[in-house]
Structures
1.
Amino acid sequence: KQEVTQIPAALSVPEGENLVLNCSFTDSAIYNLQWFRQDPGKGLTSLLLIQSSQREQTSGRLNASLDKSSGRSTLYIAASQPGDSATYLCAVRRSNDYKLSFGAGTTVTVRA
Amino acid sequence: NAGVTQTPKFRILKIGQSMTLQCTQDMNHNYMYWYRQDPGMGLKLIYYSVGAGITDKGEVPNGYNVSRSTTEDFPLRLELAAPSQTSVYFCASSYQSGGAQYFGPGTRLTVL
């Protein structure tokens, strides 16, 4: 069974600081890994999708890395802004499965 | 495109009542999913569908039923609602089985 862990559960940083969010998973036989953002009371917005063959993906200020062998992914958000305050979820899809296994998320607060 | 839409946004049910959560996507995606999110937990897959007429169980299917008569619609039926079904329900879709999943805004359900 795939277990996905995100530590810390919550993070507070001053505006302008770089954010580093961690995601670890127990089964390295993954198909891809997806990072989402969730605002309070809202649905999930897809941020980045990394295929198992890729090492990283970038979109604007966001960069996600993937190390399958160690079962880790890291989401970097450069020069954080108050608008980045949200919960960030990572989800892993195994090679032989349709479902995504989600972490519980890291709630980020960026202080102005 | 509206993306993935869900109705209703909120609902309160009494124990033993039934209801259908509606989900529609206008992206012509073959794959659709129903998840539930409990406080402080990651999302768990209830049911999924790989195309019209084809559905299968996810991790937590007990107490739910689905149907998929069209590509666009994937309703989730709750029979005999129980307090354990109090949760936020998300519908998602993807173009390919391994592609990024796009989520609706969610339905917040309370069973009293």
2.
Amino acid sequence: DIVMTQTPLSLSVTPGQPASISCKSSQSLLHSDGGTYLNWYLKKPGQSPLLLIHEVSNRFSGVADRFRGSGSGTDFTLEISRVEAEDVGIYFCMQSLQLPLTFGGGTKVEIK
Amino acid sequence: EVQLVESGGGLAQPGGSLRLSCAASGFTFSNYWMHWVRQAPGKGLVWVSRISPDGSNTRYADSVKGRFTISRDNAKNTLYLHMNSLRAEDTAVYYCTRVFSGALGYWGQGTLVTVSS
């Protein structure tokens, strides 16, 4: 199974300031079709997970452009350019290269 | 608008059974791979199972293999998860999800399964 490791475990951010979350996979997420299957989700309390970014850097429909994904191979980053109050929750990375699909442990983002 | 609505959760005894359902709407259900993902209280997200559009291809997490069965009825636009031999560690919120561009793009609101005597 591919192990996904996220850091940090938690972040406390002042509104308007940037935030960055790292996700590392135990093997490359590059598929033979050329795609890299790393995705980012936000889970707010009491809600189901929301897809933010798919295939490293593609924002899902309706996702604000302050969310940016980057990376390649085994190292990936989610950046929020200017954190807003509504961005609080737990962020997860997930690999969809192979089954079983596996998730990072999550990064809790709070507002200062 | 894509909608996924789970039902069927509740309290079950250890060793018991439950059947979860997921009613899909807003898209052509029979065209899509579907997955179940769960989240135990205070824990992270864990993939459970996947089924192909025509239902012929299924896969399971090792932790549920032999106990859970995923199925679908494309005429009813409904996904199922049949859960047998339930254990305390199966206690979780179960989410029905639809694939989007290789990711799990759409999620239901989840249904809580509690396994306890």
